[in-house]
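Supplementary notes for students who missed Thursday's class. We covered one full example, reproduced here. Read the sequence, then the structure, then the short commentary at the end.
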Amino acid sequence: RLSSRLHPLIYPHYFTKTRKMKLSHRIPLLCASVFDLVPLTASAAIYDTAWQVADLRSFFHGDPSPPAKAPPPKQLAVVSTAQGVAADAQIEGFLRGFADAIKARDGKALLPRLSEKYTIDDLPSGLKAGDFFLQAIEQITGPNEIVITALESRNNIRTAKIEFRYNADKIKSRTFQFDAAGRLLWSDLFTLQSRRADA
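Structure (token representation):
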């Protein structure tokens, strides 16, 4: 029995192809927890969305169609460093590339800026964090401003606190970690969820 929380408009391939399958796998889904998108549940306090990545097609018969790209934001996010925080050109450069990617709905240019060790919490073995990253770029809402509010360095890892500002009443704060070369190692920008296909 399929979970009622999977919406057929979001997962048309899943609903047409897996009714005959008896899967016990946990299927990982990506949530853009920072940005307001389509609600997963009507009672959700923070409206998130989830979608499947190309690597999961082995669970299905045939290749599922990728999610359609969201419309690009109307403006390019302005990247800055808060007063009193030492500016880091590499991190600012990454974030400007991130803003450009969201505006273009294409994150391929950012892939070289992801560390070979880049990961997402609870990433299942065999899946690529970079694939989740690319799909998220195509979906997440673009902020008006991206501001580095704190920065510390320890053991060649730079940890930045970053605010995504949409307006005066809507600000999301997240943590990014970068290696010595300024490549992204980890962030809490995205989260993974698992749901049983036979639940």
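Commentary. The longest helix spans residues 89-104. The first strand starts at residue 26 and ends at 31. If anything here is unclear, bring it to office hours.
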